Amino acid sequence: MARHVVVGACPHDCPDTCSILTTVEDGKAVAVRGNPDHPFTRGRLCVKVNNYQDRTYSDQRLLFPMRRSGPKGSGQFERISWDEALAEIASRWKALIATEGPQSILPYSYLGTQGILNGLNVGDPLFNKLGATVCERTFCDSASCTAYMMTIGHTPGADPESFVHSRYIVLWACNTLSTNSHHWPFIEQARKNGAKLVVIDPVRTRTARLADWHIPIRPGTDGALALAMAHILIRDGLIDRDYIDRHTLGFDELAERVKAYTPEFAAEQTGIPVEDILKLTREYASTPPAVVRIGVAVERHAGGGQTVRAIACLPALIGAWKHVGGGLLQLPIWAFPVNWPGLMRPDLQPESMRVINSWRLGPALTGETSLDPPIRSLFVYNANPMAMVSDQDRIERGLAREDLFTVCSEHFMTDTARFADILLPATTQLEQKDIMFSWGHLYLSYNNPAIEPLGEAVPNTELFRRLARAMGIEDPFFHRSDDEMIEASLDWSSPVLEGITLEELRRKGFMRLNMPVADDWAPHREGNFPTPSGKCEFKSSMAEGGNFVVPLFRQGYGGQQAGEPVDPLPHYVAPNESPATATALAQRYPLSLISPKSHAFLNSNYGNLPAQRAQAGEEQMVLLHPDDASARGIAAGTPIRVFNDRGAFEAKATLSADVSPGLVMAPSGYWHRSNRAGPTVHALTPLAFADLGRAPTFSDTLVQVVAL
Ligand SMILES: Nc1nc2c(c(=O)[nH]1)N[C@H]1C(S)=C(S)[C@@H](COP(=O)(O)OP(=O)(O)OC[C@H]3O[C@@H](n4cnc5c(=O)[nH]c(N)nc54)[C@H](O)[C@@H]3O)O[C@H]1N2
Ligand SMILES: Nc1nc2c(c(=O)[nH]1)N[C@H]1C(S)=C(S)[C@@H](COP(=O)(O)OP(=O)(O)OC[C@H]3O[C@@H](n4cnc5c(=O)[nH]c(N)nc54)[C@H](O)[C@@H]3O)O[C@H]1N2
Ligand code: SF4
Ligand SMILES: [Mo]
Q: How many CA atoms does the CB half-sphere of 556 hold within 13 Å?
């Protein structure tokens, strides 16, 4: 029996980007395990991925191109050849381009796979070349990143491995044990050395349960807490005046601004007692090295951007950046010298480019956003909007349109794929080649394919080569091999790639960027922030012009609209929908609904697979406080209906004091077919954007719950 081990990397949109060893026997992948040599993976994969071969070999896999044979959304398809599929797509698109113009085509994608080749940008050059509508992908972290850039620039921030040196660790809206679990050993190591772990989260999550101090907070009010912390630090002289003088901009204005944000104000907004706000601030200032790790969840509210602005000011105020293991960790992705323009090819976009935001898919498809030309063809890959995007009812009505030609490239018949006219089979990570950045550590990874593609599945790179050919595009750029694309995917002249060769990377599967070792590296000890001033900008010079586009967050990825005025100083923006801010609405819908990540699903991935469903619970559950449940006659395990004016979904009640009264929590990722009545949480969430980066506000949602 021929048996060998192939080194690869996890494809998922997850900060950990684990190094995976796949055992292959006679051409078949029989097991995957975490690479013990990878300093972050440390030999362990999570519950989502530790049976990844079952995803690859699942009998639910789409392995051949198919054409719809029943009504839209019926899930009835018949097998066709790739030639037939490509010919049909090309003829429909050519006709649309000739009659209605290329903007009648909308590509729709995100990070189904995170590989630099097959991920975010793989379709951009083709759709730009065609002149299609550009989909602005602000699914995740765009408010946060815009705020972060405005304050400290595109720095990787504190090295996640340097947390072992921290003495005070704040996990702010981050459920590390579920969503970033390979960071946990570093935090535990710090705790063995005496560090204190604080978790700020409305829910007593599995991470919060293990913390030294869990601070429950009302959703969407973190900005008030951070601004009050700045207020206390300045008022009580807990700041590092020397660091502020040398390495920050706009301190006097910030000091003036935060005068209004008293601990009493913050207590009223957040529900955290004044004493706790004082204690948190004093401990944070007096226990160096102090570090904050912010999760993405903090941005999903009206004030998501300003919240991150305020939090990003705190480390500079106390000089936390001076210490190894101090500062702020958001997304170290900025360390990777990815050749974004080479991947996206914005130069191919026509001047008259039209942009539609990914969160506005529903109204764009139904025609409620008036569009000329209307969207006549939708091409979905690496995304599952029916499960993950607000305004589910409109998305479904849009997808059901008879005059919409929908193509979907997928592993599985997702809630979105069911509505396709043409379905195209995509390879999984075991069947494709890629090179990977990480947004949770500083190792570049290489994914060697472990097995041949199953059936007629193709990697996204090959999909777009085929589509380009079918559309008559002969430019060699569109026909580069995967190896040629890998060569061009990074800026190899960057100092952080010094000493890294593709050959070695391919062999080892991962290499740390050429950056100082975590153990004696404080990246901003001497300032050197990659902002226009080189300082931490309490008062943002990017905002002052009211005209900035954050690098990477250009059209096509998402970000602040050039020209939109932004207050240069951080300030508090209360949630759009909360019992305190929407009092009339709260009469009818008194409960706040949040829908964070499920422990066993990766966004909506694995929502159809048995092992992960067994772990997550077969059916959507909703966590309710026992007082809220008994007031509604709801017992544990009872079927319930969660609703507001926008829609409703059904679920099973789980009663627990892990949520405060007034809060309900529904883990995201469940598919329609596993829900009792079809719709999922996004039937209820709003379309409003947050204050920066056109991020979603789906956690600003008021609902009512009744027993069924
Ligand atoms: N298991 C698992 N891991 C994942 C994913 C997954 O789906 N499943 N998805 C990946 C992706 S795409 C991302 S972006 C990351 C996200 O990683 P995280 O940011 O950790 O994700 P969430 O679980 O959405 O939110 C974290 C915590 O924030 C809390 N929270 C919600 N609203 C607020 C608020 O207003 N204030 C505060 N302080 N806390 C709040 C939630 O209760 C939750 O416990 O995870 C990645 N990893
Ligand atoms: N309620 C709620 N909504 C949320 C969130 C939340 O926490 N709660 N999180 C938000 C965030 S942070 C994010 S990042 C987005 C995620 O939104 P999406 O990226 O749309 O979510 P996924 O479920 O990861 O969908 C990716 C799809 O790509 C497919 N896929 C995987 N690999 C490949 C491939 O190689 N080729 C092709 N063609 N397809 C592939 C998968 O099978 C999957 O169906 O959702 C956002 N929406
Ligand atoms: S999903 Fe995240 S934690 Fe799980 S194996 Fe992949 S990278 Fe690692
Ligand atoms: Mo995300």
A: 26
